[in-house]
Write a structure and sequence with these properties.
Elements lengths: L1 E6 L7 H14 L6 E7 L2 H12 L7 E5 L15 E8 L1 H11 L3 H16 L7 H21 L19
Parallel strand pairs: 1-2, 2-4
Antiparallel strand pairs: 3-4
Organism: Dermacoccus abyssi
Cofactor: Zn(2+)
InterPro entries: MetalPrtase_cat_dom_sf_prd, YbeY, YbeY_CS
Length: about 170
């Protein structure tokens, strides 16, 4: 897997951790090893521009995903197709505010948003109640198992399933 990362802000972000989390999420979803992903870390002004342009919503948001080849998850014994998964754009200052409100650290929020973005790129959505439950349970499972694989213990109740109200 090729994961291209760029931090276009002055905020210190552990790009190695975001890379590892994205790779873990893609492995969990049986994504082909020849898939490409781009993750950009941007400031609130740039995120607001994208949010207005693509969602017609004012203000910055935490994460946006832009699928490219419309890949879908694979399954055990049958990996996804090869290609360009797409782009994930994260805003660390919005993530920091959400993390504070949720009672966990900013990096955990950025990891949650990374998993969220990967799932969106693979076709998951949360517009309908059934889709929402499936996506956010999967997101939670991937994030908690990723953190456990890194020797990090997170109280299960501190990782939110759904995005804050008014987001996405």
């Amino acid at each position: 897997m090729t994961i291209d990362l760029a931090n276009e802000t002055d905020v210190a972000v552990d790009l190695d951790e975001i890379h590892d989390c994205a790779r873990y999420a893609m492995d969990a979803m049986f994504v082909h090893p020849n898939v490409e992903l781009s993750i950009r870390i941007i400031d609130e002004a740039a995120m607001e521009t994208l949010h207005v342009q693509w969602m017609d919503l004012e203000g910055p948001t935490d994460v946006m995903s832009f699928p490219m080849d419309e890949l879908t998850p694979g399954r055990e014994g049958a990996l996804s197709d090869e290609g360009m998964l797409g782009d994930i754009v994260l805003c660390p200052t919005v993530a920091a505010a959400q993390a504070s409100a949720a009672g966990h650290d900013t990096m955990e929020e950025l990891l949650l948003l990374t998993v969220h973005g990967v799932l969106h790129l693979l076709g998951y959505d949360h517009a309908e109640a059934e889709e929402r439950l499936e996506m956010f349970e999967l997101q939670r499972t991937i994030l908690l198992t990723y953190l456990a694989s890194r020797g990090r213990s997170v109280e299960a109740g501190t990782i939110r399933i759904a995005p804050p109200s008014g987001r996405e």
